[in-house]
């Protein structure tokens, strides 16, 4: 099980929350471009907490030499895996000639993978789509995986939708192209020696279990963010861990303690962290009011612990 890399969502604060809920789930960073690492603020992009392990760094880029240097930085900072983004369809990413458009250049992706593998000792993996635009030829994704595997990549995370490079926004690209889970199962059948994980649209334990009968892993994106408490069952269901005694209240208290440490060590305001846990009480009575308190900008001047007290106080009855 893993949580997908999601821009503006899976920062280190979000990953801290997810790690409180599951000890074994593999976590991914937001995509970090090679330019941001080679010419920008490396600590800002790569800093993470020791408790986040296992955690993977997702890179965006298309120049083998640049990706190799960025991978080297990721390894030096202690990441457990380097993942190459071959699935993002946004116009900004296309202008940089990486993301999903790289699927049209499998030999370049193979060169990128080889350059990174030559630079680091940790796994180098690839996340990709099943096709580009309206093309549904299975041979396209099969040949992509086969070419990249020949360069030494053994783990592929398959977002089971096509990427439409024109006419759809990134949000629409996550919803409109139809899900075709059978493509990932077919890849696993054709490449049994590879690790194939599937991503796209998962919201229930049953849906995950169904796919694990055909592939090696499942990556969950938006549902893990909007309903993070789901992760609290994963260690027991999917990793064979003993049943946990974790409560939402304990997670909230641990997050407040984290907010207090972040304020002292890095000057991070609790409000920037709290946004990631707004789904913690998803589906429970009083969740809406609890969420409103934690997201109320008028309370920014209060300490996080006082905000937690307010959030837990039932509104007066009339």
UniProtKB/TrEMBL annotation:
CDD domains: DUS_like_FMN. Residues 3-298 form the DUS-like FMN-binding domain. The active site is at residue 88. FMN binds at residues 5-7, 58, 127, 159, 199-201, 221-222. Its cofactor is FMN. Pfam families: Dus (PF01207). The keyword Zinc does not apply. SUPFAM superfamilies: FMN-linked oxidoreductases. It comes from the Bacteria. The record marks 85, 171, 174, 288, 291 as: Interacts with tRNA. Keywords: Flavoprotein, FMN, NADP, Oxidoreductase, RNA-binding, tRNA processing, tRNA-binding. Its EC number is 1.3.1.91. It catalyses: 5,6-dihydrouridine(20) in tRNA + NADP(+) = uridine(20) in tRNA + NADPH + H(+); 5,6-dihydrouridine(20a) in tRNA + NADP(+) = uridine(20a) in tRNA + NADPH + H(+); 5,6-dihydrouridine(20) in tRNA + NAD(+) = uridine(20) in tRNA + NADH + H(+); 5,6-dihydrouridine(20a) in tRNA + NAD(+) = uridine(20a) in tRNA + NADH + H(+). The keyword Protease does not apply. Gene3D superfamilies: 1.20.120.1460, Aldolase class I. GO terms for molecular function: tRNA-dihydrouridine20 synthase activity. NCBIfam families: PRK11815.1, yjbN. Belongs to the Dus family. DusA subfamily. Catalyzes the synthesis of 5,6-dihydrouridine (D), a modified base found in the D-loop of most tRNAs, via the reduction of the C5-C6 double bond in target uridines. Specifically modifies U20 and U20a in tRNAs. This is tRNA-dihydrouridine(20/20a) synthase. The lineage of its organism: Bacteria, Pseudomonadati, Pseudomonadota, Betaproteobacteria, Burkholderiales.
């Amino acid at each position: 099980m893993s949580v997908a890399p999601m821009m503006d969502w899976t920062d280190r604060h979000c990953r801290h929350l997810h790690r409180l809920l599951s000890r074994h789930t593999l976590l991914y960073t937001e995509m970090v471009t090679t330019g941001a690492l080679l010419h920008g603020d490396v600590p800002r992009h790569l800093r993470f907490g020791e408790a986040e392990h296992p955690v993977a760094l997702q890179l965006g880029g298309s120049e083998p030499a640049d990706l190799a240097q960025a991978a080297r930085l990721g390894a030096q900072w202690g990441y457990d895996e380097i993942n190459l983004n071959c699935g993002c369809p946004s116009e900004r990413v296309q202008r940089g000639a990486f993301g999903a458009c790289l699927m049209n250049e499998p030999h370049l992706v193979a060169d990128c993978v080889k350059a990174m593998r030559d630079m680091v000792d940790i796994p180098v993996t690839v996340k990709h789509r099943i096709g580009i635009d309206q093309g549904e030829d299975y041979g396209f994704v099969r040949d992509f995986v086969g070419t990249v595997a020949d360069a030494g990549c053994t783990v592929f995370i398959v977002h089971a939708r096509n990427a439409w490079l024109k006419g759809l926004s990134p949000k629409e690209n996550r919803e409109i192209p139809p899900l075709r889970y059978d493509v990932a199962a077919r890849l696993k059948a054709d490449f049994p020696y590879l690790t194939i994980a599937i991503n796209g649209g998962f919201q229930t334990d049953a849906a995950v279990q169904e796919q694990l009968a055909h592939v090696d892993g499942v990556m969950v994106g938006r549902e893990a963010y909007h309903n993070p408490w789901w992760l609290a069952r994963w260690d027991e269901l999917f990793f064979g861990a003993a049943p946990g005694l974790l409560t939402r209240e304990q997670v909230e208290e641990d997050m407040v303690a984290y907010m207090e440490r972040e304020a002292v060590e890095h000057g991070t305001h609790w409000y920037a962290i709290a946004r990631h846990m707004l789904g913690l009480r998803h589906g429970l009575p009083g969740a809406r009011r609890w969420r409103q308190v934690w997201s109320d900008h008028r309370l920014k001047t209060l300490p996080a612990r006082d905000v937690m007290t307010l959030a837990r106080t039932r509104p007066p009855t009339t």
